[in-house]
Design goal:
Blueprint (H helix, E strand, L loop, with lengths): L16 E2 L2 E2 L8 H14 L3 H15 L5 E3 L1 H7 L2 E6 L9 H14 L4 E6 L3 H13 L2 E7 H6 L1 H9 L3 E5 L6 H14 L4 E4 L9 H9 L1 H14 L6 E5 L4 H7 L9 E9 L10 H4 L1 E5 L2 E5 L24 H8 L3 E7 H15 L5 H7 L1 H4 L7 E6 L7 H10 L1
Parallel strand pairs: 4-14, 5-6, 5-8, 6-7, 9-10, 9-14, 10-13
Antiparallel strand pairs: 1-2, 3-4, 11-12
Helix pairs in contact: 2-4, 4-5, 4-9, 5-7, 9-11, 10-11, 14-15
This protein binds pyridoxal-5'-phosphate.
């Protein structure tokens, strides 16, 4: 393993390893694609023109900086000091647009004319289709046929934005299969096509690149916290983890600050031991998924198991290599949150603060009910998205309770 750190904040080396996790396990045919991406990313990430264009779009198009909001009634409820980072107020309703903009800008610099993406619930597909409309690029989104059927509003949005949505009918017809199909497309069209991955997963440099494009979240938190409280460092930063991009963005500028405790919330579904969960860090074993060595939910003989969570965005059988490393090295504490804990947390936030969170974000909020925080602690929770897309699920749960 090469141990030279190549990122100012992330614990990643030149080969893309975070401790034992990460790397780039891709078929021979994709080697040059991955190499070209690595070179382009290294060239543009600090290029002043690229940075200026990215930051201008983050401010004028996405609406950044997003507020850091001191949630007083929620704080009172839990006897601590809670600040919400309002990624739900980003254009399109979640943090995913930050990465979509950075990635598509890079694709343009590389001379690519065709963008492909995979999507599960459709949030990343919508963000990518949005940026492609903005930049006048062709966009193809792979989505499992099961997800196409159950996420109709997002499918309609992508189509209205001009994207072609391909319903994938292999395997279980969900995110894992859509990702395989996107990788296959990338193999066949290496010269004109750029693959925008929606989380801190995939072969190196994707996990590093996506974390970097999301790192604006913690850069803003530091500055905003300083303005509001006089101190730059909170005691805790809490975020939900699907593949890990919103958590990576929220943790990024605190990774090297040992006094800041990092807490990730993964989806326990019906319970860690129920056989119906997506608690990859609790249940996963080392394996390779989508081009990266990480923790994977799998059977004894290495078959990837189908994950389950009430929240489509956390329903993934792997986890980004950064988070596998932060968890196994003890830098981050990992909490498993069930469907019902997340629903309860969503209702509590709605009734105390008038904010309806995404179901994914509700998993981070549920940590407040699991863990005791001191009355002087400053706890920042990354509110990764808004709950409009989850209204049907919320209404059903209210009817059933
Ligand atoms: C997609 C999504 C997530 C999970 O993805 P990460 O890469 O782990 O951030 C979390 N919250 C929202 C609102 C999402 O749309």
């Amino acid at each position: 393993m090469n141990t030279r750190q190549i990122d100012p904040f992330l614990p990643v080396d030149e080969e893309g390893y975070y401790g034992p996790f990460g790397g780039a396990y891709v078929p021979e045919i994709l080697h040059s694609n991955v190499e070209n991406l690595k070179e382009a990313y290294a060239r543009y990430v600090e290029d002043p023109e690229f940075v200026a264009e990215f930051e201008q779009l983050l401010s004028d198009y996405v609406g950044r900086p997003t507020p850091l909001y001191h949630a007083r009634r929620l704080s009172e409820h839990f006897g601590t000091n809670i600040y919400l980072k309002r990624e739900d107020l980003c254009h399109t309703g979640a943090h995913k647009i930050n990465n979509a903009i950075g990635s598509v800008l890079l694709a343009k610099r590389m001379g690519k004319t065709r963008i492909i993406a995979e999507t599960g619930a459709g949030q990343h597909g919508v963000a990518t289709a949005t940026v492609c409309a903005l930049m006048g690029l062709e966009c193809v989104v792979y989505m499992g046929a099961t997800d196409v059927a159950r996420q109709q509003p997002n499918v309609e949005r992508m189509k209205m934005l001009g994207a072609k949505v391909v319903a994938v009918t292999s395997g279980n017809q969900t995110l894992k299969d859509a990702t395989n199909e996107a990788i296959r497309d990338w193999c066949c069209n290496p010269s004109d096509t750029f693959y925008v991955i929606g989380s801190t997963v995939g072969p190196h440099p994707y996990p590093q690149m996506v974390a970097h494009f999301q790192s604006v979240i913690s850069r803003e938190i530091r500055r905003q916290l300083k303005e509001q409280t006089g101190r730059e460092l909170p005691d805790y930063v809490v975020a939900c983890v699907g593949g890990g991009s919103n958590a990576a963005g929220a943790f990024y500028h605190f990774l090297q600050e040992p006094t800041v405790k990092l807490v990730s919330a993964e989806a326990a579904g019906l319970g860690i031991d129920s056989g119906e969960s997506a608690a990859t860090i609790h249940l996963g074993k080392e394996g390779i998924i989508h081009g990266s060595r990480t923790l994977v939910m799998q059977t004894e003989d290495g078959q990837i198991t189908e994950p389950y969570s009430i929240s489509a965005g956390l329903d993934y059988p792997g986890i980004g290599p950064l988070h596998a490393y932060l968890a196994t090295s003890g830098r981050a504490e990992v909490r498993a949150v069930t469907d019902s804990e997340a629903l309860e947390a969503a209702n509590l936030l709605t009734r105390t603060e008038g904010i309806i969170p995404a179901l994914e974000s509700a998993h981070a909020l549920a940590v407040l009910g699991q863990k005791r925080f001191g009355k002087d602690d400053v706890v920042v929770i990354n509110l990764s998205g808004r709950g409009d897309k989850d209204m049907a699920t919320y209404l059903k749960s209210i009817k059933n309770s």
